[in-house]
């Protein structure tokens, strides 16, 4: 078990694009070479866990390291970095900030400060530990999805204004950098891959938004063992989402699939092979999640690109992968989290490598069969 202490980023740290972008053989290959040889951009909007230290004064005293990490997709970070090391056909971009600073898989509010102010006011009105509706203002959540406090409620309007300002300024140094880097990478991929498609008579480019979620939530004592309702549970390995139905087909013309339905089904079959699952239901489509902001935004960017370049032979897709966190963590770490405590388990390098190798195998299989 790791230390139970909270994890922080040094105050004032501003991240650069090259610190949050990963690809194979960085010493021998430039990013330009990596983009030329890759066909998959993996984004991890919730991988960061460490909190900017300048926000420490606003944290709820009840926040533990376990709650801190549980409110992130921290387990995805080590896996996708290892995947990037072993697979020259992927480039990875990772959000260095936790989603508590601002969630880049939600639409960015026009006014971040005003949105946070509204969220804090709703939490204060509901009362600490009580369920609260944050619909429309959950880009920055003062509470976890189990309604455990993350932020303390400011005691005065002046404190609230200062909290909102601090979050806005902190976000500029991390999550904003992530979004800019991700979007710039997409544009660079589109330029390079479209040119390659013209030369080769066709090519593909896919963005993958990589996540994880547990099928249990947390008790006040820190045990992550409260089973979710059946409708909210993930399959045993991964849910692949394109905003479609359970077959990947369009649900409504107002919300077009982000990836072709046949290609999504092919990708699911490839994951069943790559992860060597015995039960086909271990990999499902659009259950329980349809996919969120990152794939919606990518779909719309791709649509604009094809309108601008109707002659392009490039096939573009965006897909979300929501892995079962218990599967990514492994049995030992999962069992540890199911008991009361404040800490977070150490990662198992052997298990991480096995998952990364299976991710690579799945996408290799997809390329062979699509």
What's the overall geometry? globular
**How many distinct beta strands?**
11
Going across the biggest sheet, name each strand in turn. 2-5-3-6-11-9-10
Largest sheet: 7 strands, mixed
Q: Note the run of SSEs as H and E.
A: EEHEEHHEHHHEEEEHEHEHHH
Gyration radius, in Å: 20 Å
What is the helix tally? 11
CATH top-level class: Alpha Beta
At CATH level 2, the architecture is 3-Layer(aba) Sandwich
CATH fold-level assignment? Aminopeptidase
Average pLDDT for all residues: 95
User: Hey, roughly how much beta strand do the residues contain?
Assistant: 5-15%
Helix percent band:
25-40%
For the record, give the distance between the C-alpha atoms at the N and C termini, rounded to a whole number.
Answer: 42 Å
Q: What structural class is derived from the secondary structure elements?
A: alpha/beta
Q: Into how many domains do the coordinates divide?
A: 1
Low-confidence blocks of residues: none
Protein name: N-formylglutamate amidohydrolase
InterPro entries: N-FG_amidohydro (IPR007709)
Pfam family, one: FGase
List keywords for this structure.
seven-stranded mixed sheet; alpha/beta; N-formylglutamate amidohydrolase; Aminopeptidase; 370 residues; two-stranded parallel ribbon; 39% helix; single chain; N-FG_amidohydro
